[in-house]
Amino acid sequence: MNKSVCDVPMRTSFPVPERVDRKNNPEGSVISIKGNDIGGKGVIIIAGPCAVESKEQLFETARKVISDGARILRGGAFKPRSSPYSFQGMGEEGLKLLNEISSETGMPVVTEVMDTRQIELVSQYADMLQIGSRNMQNYPLLKEAGHSKKPILLKRGMMATVEEFLLAAEYILSHGNEQVVLCERGIRTFETSTRNTLDLNAVPMLKNLTHLPVIVDPSHGTGLRWMVPAMAKAAIAAGADGIIMEVHYSPETALCDGQQSLSPDEFAILMSDLKKIALAVGRDIL
Questions:
Q1: Residue 9, domain member (yes or no)
Q2: With a cut of 50, which residues of the chain have pLDDT below it?
Q3: Listed residue (160, 138, 150, 157) closest to 180, CA to CA
Q4: What is the extent of the structural domain holding 273?
């Protein structure tokens, strides 16, 4: 008996871009950042403050998260903010501090680039370049990232479909850089109880469609500190290759996104729980 149309599984209703298509690498790609793999069986944890605010803030936070199991340090030297009057980051001085703590701890650093003119500068200090949600469809920036030799962390646009997200990644790969990690960080919906709606549907969908590693940002995905642990656990259960979280040594005094940043103690407790979740789904926290 012939199967009905409803019985026939479909990958997606749109054509998957050529270079990102999982058919090119059914086992999935692994992106290595100074010996720290993103992809494969292990789950990597990226943690640190939303923005670099001072040497004390960055160094104290970094030393704590690395001691509790984070493998890559996040921290913004340049910050895109909705208000022109909000803290915009420390710029190159922030990059120098990131590089200094990286040299001290051996922990690689990921930080955001907002403009094509920043790629060369940021590449001197960082090990991985982040293209944020607001710039996911900044095509000149995507092309320039494609010419970079640095791994790229590409965040999903806050109103982007999965197809648009994959096409943005395709821009980078088509210009020569195959070291791309995708990050689901929440999308804008009609729901107002959270900062964004964390689309965990996207994790298995992306893992099915593309060979690129997929990580999740529950900090931006929810905007609420108390929700981050639950969504981080759910992301690992859904198949994410890593979690990127905001941690601040004093969230109450943070100049940027303190309401969604974990304290070091909260991060330590969560790391213990994440190891159990990873083990339950046959994976390990790296």
A1: no
A2: 1, 5
A3: 150
A4: 32-285
